[in-house]
Amino acid sequence: MPGKTGKMERILHERDRIPLTPLQLFFTFFKISAVTFGGGIAILAMAKTELTKRSFPEEEMGEVAALATSMPGPIATSTAWLAGRKIAGLSGAVASVAGVLLPPFSAILLLSGIVLAHRDSAALSAFFKGVLCAVSALVATLVFGEIRRTFTGKAGWINLLPYVLVIGLILVARLHPLAAMACGVGLRLVLPGENRWSC
Amino acid sequence: MELLKLAWGFAQVGIGAFGGGISTLPLIRHILVDNYRWLTLDGFSQVLALAQVTPGPIAVNAATFVGFQKAGLIGATVATLSVVFAPLLIVITVAALLQRGSKNRMDRFRNALRPTVAALLTLAFLPLARTAFSGIVPFLLFAAGIGALRFRFFRENPPALFLLSGLAGLLLFL
After folding, report:
1. If exposure means fewest CB atoms within 10 Å of the residue's CB, which of A60, A78, A194, B82 is most exposed?
2. B104 and chain A: CB distance < 8 Å anywhere?
3. A31 in contact with B at a CB cutoff of 8 Å?
């Protein structure tokens, strides 16, 4: 909450922020990234817990989260950059992004050699097919939850128009997804009906 | 030349990656499979499966994988850095332009993004459904996954479910 104690808090935080060096930021984000599967939102939540525990003000974490989730790009790396930047400047930002990138980068490098060498192996395709069945299960529940959240509530039904538009443009008109997305967001912006939810 | 193509291709993936995670799949697929033909549809599914059992965002995992496949370690580095830093340039610019009061506008934008993200998620499900509904056994595995996701442990650790399901796949599909 901005307000009342804002200035005082800010001064306190300036001092509290010094303890996290770029190197510590690197290791913090490395740890978060290595143990958090399933991408962006999960990493954002972990970063929030870890950093506010180490006296990064929650208000500023909120700003980071708002930007990282509404702007393009992987949420994990945007979070790392913005939080690192606020905590320890440019070198903090670079160290945080490096920390977040290193675990997935090295994991894929290690595994891609194996996958490429065995890409026609029946065992590997059987394994991947099994994985994909479970991934579809997860995505099905995600789709279900997202649709429920998008179309319920006051004036939720109006979201149906951009939803159908985007699907139609990509699936039927074969438009580039980026163009379709722009149309969907644009249409929602001009449509009436404030449909607020917290993220 | 290959490196430039990788950099440009994955810059587009990064810049178009709104909403995070699964909702970026339609765009990633469009660029990697249809536009540049770096991956076949099967290859894309393999990358998707691999990304789900390794740490990190799908876009980053795909960049490292395709970059490595096309141009080795350098390719992997170039692709990964462009998928991350192209959108970061936008984030940095917006962060610099933002004033205290503009949080409302950003909330509004995020709200406007919502139905589009729901649409992208739905589209991401379609190719997956093709695998899940390709026969009785895959469907049972899919249904078992839905059931397992009712448990908190699997909701919080989806890779554990993916690995188990992969092992089941080894027994059932081989």
Report:
1. A194
2. no
3. no
